[in-house]
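Sample entry (295 residues):
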Amino acid sequence: MILVTGASGFVGGHVVHALRGRDLPVRALVRNPGKAGKLVAWGAELAQGDMTDPDSLRRAVDGAETIVHLVAIRQGRGQEFQRIMVDGTRDLLAAANEAHVRRFVHMSALGTSEQTKNLVPYFQAKWETEQLVRGAGIPYVIFRPSFVFGPDGGILPTFVKLARLAPVTPIIGGGRQRIQPIWADDVAAYFAEAVTREDVAGRVFELGGPDIVTWNEFWAELKRVLGLRRPSIHVPIGLMQLNAVVTEWLPGNIPLTRDLLKMLEHGDNVVSADDAVRTFALPLSPLADQLRQAA
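Predicted structure, serialized as tokens:
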């Protein structure tokens, strides 16, 4: 049995679908089973629980041989990152050890390192959870994906909407930082491979798509795919930070925060090595195909 945390999230849905597509047994940890009909339709078993409830984690882990851990938050106060991501991962690993879990596949994030851990709480939590996974004594695989694109979640639908509706496309800063977006189904394929392959245990893999582009090139390609010819304007980081101060107070999942701006300003978001490509040899969707599928 494979327990998937964060199964009802954007990436989680793709991972569950990939695992069930291989006829692998899946137990999905969800907070609200009533909203998990899609997972049930795919043949997943549901376990109601929460990363802040250690008892529910122990119940979910019982009988599982493998855990795929995807839970994370992108915004919030420092104590929320600590409670949900760091403490939650610690409790999950404790339950995994009690249940003699044989494999732990963990989703981190590209850019996570000892050098960036103090940049924003998100990187701090990702770095700390990586260390917990490494030290738990369970065979592990850690993935650090770049921007994950898909038509049904993540940031890409927001970009598509912005390109369609805004008369002028705002590009943060000079637009010269590079990104390496990867398609959600491709990320899921990596996770599905990692639950069974023995040669990948104890390794950390950076995940990116086949194309590296600057933000300027990304927006130009997106508008080309959408058939739009609207101009772009470069907005200074400082002005965007002032905007983020206001939008952070709005309810819901805000796409632009001061922490995100710090991460964007920090530098390129591209893989430093091609270990994942060489090791897994999986087909990857070109950026143009990603954008066409989301258009």
